[in-house]
Every structure is written in C-alpha cells, then in structure tokens.
Amino acid sequence: MLLRTATIAAIAAVFATQIPALIDRAGPPSQVPATVEDAPPVQNAAYTPGTAVLEADGRGHFEAAFRINGKPVEGLVDTGASLVAINETTARRLGFGANSLDFRYNVNTANGPTEAAHIKLSRMEIGGVRVQNIDAFVLRDRGLSGTLVGMSFLKKLKSFQVEGGKLKLTQ
C-alpha cells in the first residue's frame, strides 16, 4: 500500500510540475479560443511508416494532432510527464463515460487540487507511429485544459529524439 501511495504521489508531482507549461501555452484568457473551431490548426506530423517527425513551435513545444482510440486529439508531447493525461471532456469524447471513471487519485496541479482516474487507452497514433495499450490519467477539466502525451506513450517507441528543432518518433 505504501508503494502504491508513493507511486501516486510521484505521478501527482510530475503533473504539478507540467501544468504551468500548459497554462503558459494557453496565454491570457483573451487569447484562448472560445471553441475548438476557433483554435489555430495543430500541425500534422510528417511521417513514413513507423516514424513521425514534429516541428517545434515558436516556444519550442511539440504539439500535434494525434489519434486516440481512433479519434483526433491535439496533444502536447511532454517528456516530463509519466503518463498520458487527458481531461474529462476529452475522455467522454473518446468513449469513457462518467460512470466508468473512478476518480480516486488526488493530484495537485497549477490550477489547484483535483482528482484523477486511471484508464487504459487502446491505441494512440501519430503519423506512421501506432502504439497500443497505453496507461493514462483522466483529470478533472479544472485541473487540465489539454492533453499531455507523456512517457507511457513515448517509452513504447523504439526511440524518440530532438534535433534541430524537430522531434523524431520511431516505432
């Protein structure tokens, strides 16, 4: 039980350190799009089979259009995040109903304390890369505004490397 609590605390600490980057990325409230349709387009990854290459944005972040369980989701690649993290709204769009989410983990974010539920994603895809059976956390919407693509996705790849402002993912 102590190991489980320590693991959850470590995951919460990682989330707490990564949420400020999401808030920075969002900018002041007046700059945040009112709807998904108003949002600027996220780059699609260049790819060949088994690879994807993402270009850094002006702030050095790697944000791209992923497919999670077959549905498009914009995600920010974050090597500092232990797990893929999505918010409740995205989880519902991916088919995780409110009754199937067990928000039993307490985590602290830059937006304050919130609850998280552990889930398994069937598959995540970007470009020519496809990964299956990925651990993820669903956080309450107030705790996470976007999607973080963390190490539970990246560690299933053969490699990922940043060079010259590009992130190359290899399966």
List the helices and strands and how they pair.
Layout: H1 2-26, E1 51-55, E2 63-68, E3 71-77, E4 84-87, H2 88-93, E5 105-109, E6 112-126, E7 129-139, E8 148-149, H3 151-154, E9 159-163, E10 166-170
Keywords: Hydrolase, Protease
Protein name: TIGR02281 family clan AA aspartic protease
InterPro entries: Aspartic_peptidase_AS, Clan_AA_Asp_peptidase_C, Peptidase_aspartic_dom_sf, Retropepsin-like_bacterial
Structural write-up:
With 171 residues, the chain is an alpha+beta fold. Helices cover 20% and strands 38% of the residues. The chain has helices spanning 2-26, 88-93, 151-154, and strands at residues 51-55, 63-68, 71-77, 84-87, 105-109, 112-126, 129-139, 148-149, 159-163, 166-170. The strands form two sheets. Strands 2, 3, 4, 5, 6, 7 and 8 form a seven-stranded mixed sheet that branches. The longest helix is centred in the first third of the chain and has 25 residues, at 2-26. The termini are far apart. GO terms for molecular function: peptidase activity. InterPro entries: Aspartic_peptidase_AS (IPR001969), Clan_AA_Asp_peptidase_C (IPR011969), Peptidase_aspartic_dom_sf (IPR021109), Retropepsin-like_bacterial (IPR034122). Pfam families: gag-asp_proteas (PF13975).
